[in-house]
Amino acid sequence: MANDDLAQLVQAFGSLAANGFVMGAEWQAVHEICQAHEGEPLFDWGHALCHRIEGDDRNADYWYRRAGKRRAAGTVAEEWSAMKAELSALI
């Protein structure tokens, strides 16, 4: 996994966050990045958050398991904040 790929994920999620985590082009961009890195836990975590945003809890839970994570108890914004801190430390 290249740091550039993680930076791309952080940037795409940042755009999604700036638009209020709504479904649309920003969501699709994040989803595509995560799909391109399927099987890599950090990207699988992003995939889980995408499906949480979508409201597809069953699919989100599948990706959380693949990532070795659990759904955060807080809001999507709070989970993104924690994810961003973890990803940014690796870039």
Order of helices and strands: HHHHH
Mean pLDDT: 95
Oligomer: single chain
Total E-strand runs: 0
The biggest sheet amounts to: none
Strand content: under 5%
Number of helical stretches of at least 4 residues: 5
- What is the terminal-to-terminal distance? 11 Å
Structural class: mainly alpha
Low-confidence segments, given as residue ranges, are: none
Itemize the secondary structure elements and their pairings:
Blueprint (H helix, E strand, L loop, with lengths): L2 H16 L6 H12 L4 H14 L2 H11 L8 H13 L3
Write a concise synopsis of the structure shown:
By secondary structure, the protein is mainly α. It contains five helices and no strands.
Summarize the structure in words.
The protein is an all-alpha fold and 91 residues long. 73% of the residues lie in helices and 0% in strands. It has one domain. It is built from 5 helices and no strands. It is globular, with a radius of gyration of 12 Å. The chain starts with a helix and ends with a helix. This is Primase C-terminal 2 domain-containing protein. It comes from Neorhizobium phenanthreniclasticum.
